[in-house]
Every structure is written in C-alpha cells, then in structure tokens.
Specification:
The structure holds two protein chains of two kinds.
Chain A: H1 2-37, H2 42-46, H3 59-90, H4 95-109, H5 112-126, H6 133-157, H7 161-169, H8 174-203, H9 206-209, H10 242-252, H11 258-292
Helix pairs in contact in A: 1-11, 3-6, 3-8, 4-6, 5-6, 6-8, 7-8, 8-11, 10-11
Chain B: H1 2-10, H2 12-23, H3 26-31, H4 36-70, H5 76-81, E1 85-86, E2 94-95, H6 98-129, H7 133-147, H8 150-169, H9 176-200, H10 204-212, H11 217-246, H12 249-254, H13 272-279, H14 288-320
Antiparallel strand pairs in B: 1-2
Helix pairs in contact in B: 4-14, 6-7, 6-9, 6-11, 6-13, 7-9, 8-9, 9-11, 10-11, 11-14, 13-14
C-alpha cells in the first residue's frame, strides 16, 4: 500500500516538472510576443536606431544580423562539412582522430565570450580587421564549426553502407564516392542541422560584443558598393547585431523608449529563431516522408 | 560503422588508385575533379583547422592572460585570492579576482540546483511515463527553449524576475539568486534533453526485470533506471553547469555587477564573465586593467577546460562499466 502511494506522489511530481517546463516555454514566448509584437511596426523595422530620441527602429541591426549570419555560414559550412566527412569517412582510429574529436568537443563547449575574446585578440587586433562584420563572422565561425561538424558526421553515419559499397564497387575513388553519392544522400540532414545552427548564430551576442562592435555607421541603403564605408555590404565596418542591440539598449540605452525597443527587438529575434526552427522541422518532415516513401 | 571502415580500407579502389595517381603529375592530381588527393587535401585541411583553432585559442589567451603576471608583475596568488577589485584607484590599485571566481561558482551551482530537479523530472516524463505523446509534446518544447537566444533570457529576467525579487525580498532585485534563476532556466532544456537521451539508453530488459518482481513504476525508476543511467545523467548536469559558467550577457543584465563577495544570495554580485563583458570595451590594450581582464579570461578558459576534463572522465568511467 505504502509503495503505491509513494508511486502516485512521485509520478505526479514528475508530471508537475514536465508541466513546469512547458509552462516556462509558453509564458516566456507569450510574454515576449505579447509585449513585443505591439511595438513592431513597419516603421520600427525600417527606421535606423536613434541614440537619444524615442521612435528609433532596428533596420540596421536587423540587416547586420542577417549579413553576419550569411557570411558566417559561407565560412562555416564548407569547412564544417569537410571536417565532418573526415570524422565519418577518413578518420582511422588512433591518436590523431581522437585528438581532433577532442578539439571539436572543446570548441563546442567553450563559452562564447571566450571565443569573442579570442576574436578580439586575433581578428580585431592582430590581423587588424577592427570591429567589423568580418571579425564577427570569423568569431562565429569558430563558435559554429563544431555544430556543423557533428551534424555532418551524424548525417553520414546514418547512411546505409550499401550506397558507399556501390560507389566503391564501380571503381570510383573514395572521394568521388563521397562527392557524388554520399554527400547528396546526406544533404537533407545536413541542411536541417545547418538551419538549426543558423538560429543559434542569429541569436548569439557574447561572441560578437568584442568582434563586431557596439555601433553601426550611418548605412546608406542606396549604396551597394562593398568598398564604400557606409555601404551595407562593406565587410570591414562595425556592425551591431540585433541581439547585441537588445543587450546594449538595456545596459546603457538612454533613449526614453528603451523598454519598447528592447521588447520589440526581442520579439523580432524570437520570431526569426522560431522561423528557423520551424523551417528545419518542416524540412525534416518532408524529407523523412520522401525517403520512407509514405 | 566499424564494418564500413574495414570495407573502405580493403576496397580495391583505394589500393589501386595510388598506382594510377602516381602516373599523373602533382598538379593534375589536385585539379582532376575526381582525384582522391584533391579530396583528401580538402578534408584533412578542414580537420586540421579544428586543431589549429583550439591551439590558437588556448595559446593566444594564455599568452595574453599571463601578461599581467609577467609584464605587470602582479602576484599570481594575491590575484587569485584577493578580495578587493579597485582597478581605478589612483593610488595603489588592487586586483583581487576572488569575488568574480566566487560569483561564477555560486551562480553555476545555484543554477544547477534549480535546473536539475525540473530537468530530470521532465526527462523522466518523456522517457519513462509518457513515452509517445509526452515526447511528442516535450521534444519541440525543449528544442525551442534551447534555441531562444541568451539575451532574451536576460531580458525576461530583467522584466519579470528582477521586479518579482524586488517586491518580495526587498533590495534592488538585482542579485545573485536572480542571476542563478535566469541561468538555471536557460540550462534547463540542455540538461533535460541529454538526460532524456541517457534514460532512453537504459536497456528495457532491466525495466522488465524490475516489473517482473513486482516493483512499482517509481521503484523501477528510482532503484533501476536512475542508477543505470547514472553517469550520463551526471554528464548532463555538468554540461549544464559548464554552460551556466560561461554565460555572459544574460547574467550581466540581472546580477547587479558589484565586485564584492556577496554575504547572502540576496546580495548583488558579479562573475568572471560579467566583469569582462562590462570592462573590456572601455580599456585600452596594454593597460594594467586590460591585462588583468585578460587574466580573468584565462581563468575562465582554464575552468572551462576543467569542465571538459570532468565530462570526459565521467564518460570514460561510464563506458568501462
């Protein structure tokens, strides 16, 4: 009898824990979206931030976030995919492989602010890229590489062995087999992982603080010459991203509508992260259906 | 995948190719689109880059972090154990990093204390109680929570937790426990998802054996499943702690940023990450304060390595069993 009562109580406690988790998500999303969406307007999205006055927008920050994300992905995906292929296909058990594995693990678990400090030291100061889009993207590359490596390795390991054997039996080299048979087959799962990691990169702030900077020059959206100092495409200008903006507005903002700006920016940030998440999910579902033939 | 490796190595294609390739010149080996050498160059280059990145991070941060001891002649021991952080004092500035180290530790442990029960409970719910629909609901919840950027957690802390603490416990609301709550919520999904994986990895035969001798569900969970998942559950918690330890902006927004050892959990405090976040941008390279901050960064890096080593150690121990 006693053990049955304990059983009841314990199981209810577990259910309460799960409910608490779900409640945290719902209340957080609810809070951010309800409070934030009211301050999102076309005006908010398409005006530049104003340092002192009310009514500033987040146009530049939003653009910077996407620009840094794209540059990061251009840098990360090829290197990360190749690294993942190494671990899945070429790595022979031994010291070197286990060392590389350890390195990936270390990169994945380093605090992002440490990556930011490294970026400041090497990219900003040593290579002289200054606070810029490029420095930020390089720092985020360090931060994002291990994720892509893992995604790729998992994607390759999930493939059936027959595909590889088929390629090799045709007399193709190992690399040619990977390039023409395995990579296309693993592509969907890699893409899903890449989109998910894009959400992570999009929201990252600590690594960008000391690499992409806390300010943005007056961007001229009519000037698309990448070498002009006020061009949105310029790689070597400082670029405050949306998530850094939320932080800096909250810690040192002196405009009267700090709350509105912070809430609106947070809502925009969360909406985009949710969109990335949703995309990855839908893609995963579609691909799963296609492959399992249901 | 072991079979795969054997097949690759024994495959005639990879044996014969070396002869084929030797017939070609070095240049065409790299330009031929199907050439193995070109692929290998790409692949090995990328893998090597991983090593380069880790080595560079460790090396650069170590060199820069040791500057304050080697160039500026700060005493290492007084730096670590000193409790007074007054870098701006014109006469006799003092650099005692202990309050920050203590703050980081306190936030980490309190966050783990807050997160662990809820996270493990959720994991048990997903993996033991409601295996099908529970996982179907909770998996997306966890994935979305993981995806929410840390600044947003900070903002939520600033606009919900801080006013709540101010109302119910007095003070400004910016204090150690507020920071721990925010970070605790932040690491919840990480701990929960790894814990759920480790519970799912417990073989079903153990559960069946337990039910067969008349154990209730809870007895099975408590006496069989949790001990069997033991070391990986611990890994989940420590991974969460290492994430809590490295979190910067969310903590900085709510912890109050006072460089003193807090006398209670309701006192404002500061951590290694928050002082770096706050001061790094205002200092000039090469100044004493700047060097001291890099030393704090080095401590941060070293403790992150300690976490990594602990996780590896537990993992190895779990494998042996």
């Amino acid at each position: 009898m006693n053990s049955k009562i304990t059983n009841r109580i314990a199981l209810s406690v577990i259910i309460v824990c799960a409910a608490a988790m779900a409640a945290i998500l719902i209340s957080m999303l609810g809070y951010i979206l309800v409070r934030g969406v009211s301050s999102i307007s076309w005006h908010f999205l398409t005006t530049s931030a104003s340092p002192f006055l009310a009514g500033g927008g987040i146009k530049d920050q939003l653009w910077n976030s996407f620009y840094v994300l794209i540059i990061t992905m251009i840098l990360t995906v090829p290197i990360g995919v190749c690294g993942g292929i190494y671990l899945a296909e070429y790595a022979k058990p031994g010291r070197l492989t286990s060392f590389i594995r350890t390195c990936v693990e270390v990169l994945a678990s380093l605090p992002s602010i440490v990556v930011g400090m490294f970026g400041m030291l090497v990219f900003v100061n040593y290579f002289g890229f200054k606070y810029s889009v490029f420095s930020g993207a390089l720092a985020l590359t360090v931060f994002n590489l291990p994720v892509i490596v893992r995604v790729t390795e998992d994607g390759f390991n999930a493939l059936s062995l027959h595909q590889k054997e088929g390629g090799l039996a045709l007399g193709l080299t190992h690399w040619h087999t990977i390039k023409t048979i395995l990579l296309p087959a693993a592509f969907p799962s890699i893409l899903t992982g890449v989109i998910l990691s894009a959400g992570r990169v999009f929201g990252e702030s600590a690594a960008l603080l000391f690499t992409a900077g806390l300010s943005t020059p007056d961007l001229d959206f009519g000037n698309w010459n990448p070498s002009a100092p006020n061009s949105p495409l310029n790689l070597f200008r400082s670029a405050e991203t949306l998530s850094v903006h939320i932080w800096s507005v909250n810690t040192g903002g002196i405009m009267p509508d700090v709350q509105t700006i912070a809430n609106g920016s947070a809502a925009v940030l969360v909406i985009f992260v949710l969109l990335f998440n949703l995309c990855a999910r839908m893609l995963g579902k579609v691909i799963n259906q296609k492959f399992s033939g249901k | 995948m072991k079979i795969g490796k054997v097949v690759t190595d024994a495959a005639p294609a990879s044996r014969n190719r070396s002869k084929l390739i030797n017939e070609k010149g070095f240049f065409s080996r790299l330009t031929d689109r199907t050439s193995e050498s070109r692929g290998k160059l790409l692949i090995y280059g990328s893998a090597l880059l991983m090593i380069v990145a880790v080595t560079a991070i460790t090396l650069f941060l170590t060199i820069q972090g040791l500057r304050s001891f080697v160039v500026d002649r700060l005493n290492f021991w007084t730096f670590i154990t000193g409790t007074e952080w007054f870098p701006d004092r014109a006469k006799n500035p003092s650099f005692g990093a202990f309050p920050f180290i203590f703050g980081s530790m306190a936030v980490t442990f309190l966050a783990a204390l807050i997160a662990t029960p809820i996270a493990i409970g959720t994991a048990l719910f997903m993996a033991e109680i409601a295996k099908k629909w529970g996982a179907k609901i909770m998996q997306p919840v966890i994935e979305i929570l993981v995806g929410i950027p840390s600044v947003v957690y900070g903002l939520i802390g600033l606009s919900i937790v801080v006013p709540f603490m101010r109302q119910h416990f007095g003070g400004t609301g910016f204090n150690l426990i507020t920071g721990a709550i925010v970070v605790g919520i932040m690491i919840l999904p990480t701990v929960a998802s790894i814990a759920a994986d480790s519970i799912r990895a417990v073989p079903d035969s153990l559960r069946q054996a337990s039910y067969a001798i008349g154990a209730t569900k809870w007895q099975t969970i408590w006496r069989v499943v949790i001990p069997a998942a033991g070391s990986s559950l611990l890994t989940a918690i420590i991974l969460g702690m290492s994430r809590a330890f490295g979190e910067a902006l969310a903590v900085q927004m709510v912890i109050g940023n006072v460089g003193k050892i807090p006398s209670s959990i309701l006192d404002p405090s500061a951590t290694l990450t928050t002082i770096i976040t706050l001061s790094m941008g205002h200092t000039t390279t090469g100044s004493l304060l700047n060097d001291a901050l890099w030393s704090l960064g080095l401590i941060l890096l070293l403790i992150s390595y300690v976490f990594i080593v602990i996780i590896r150690f537990i993992g190895k121990k779990g494998e042996k069993r």
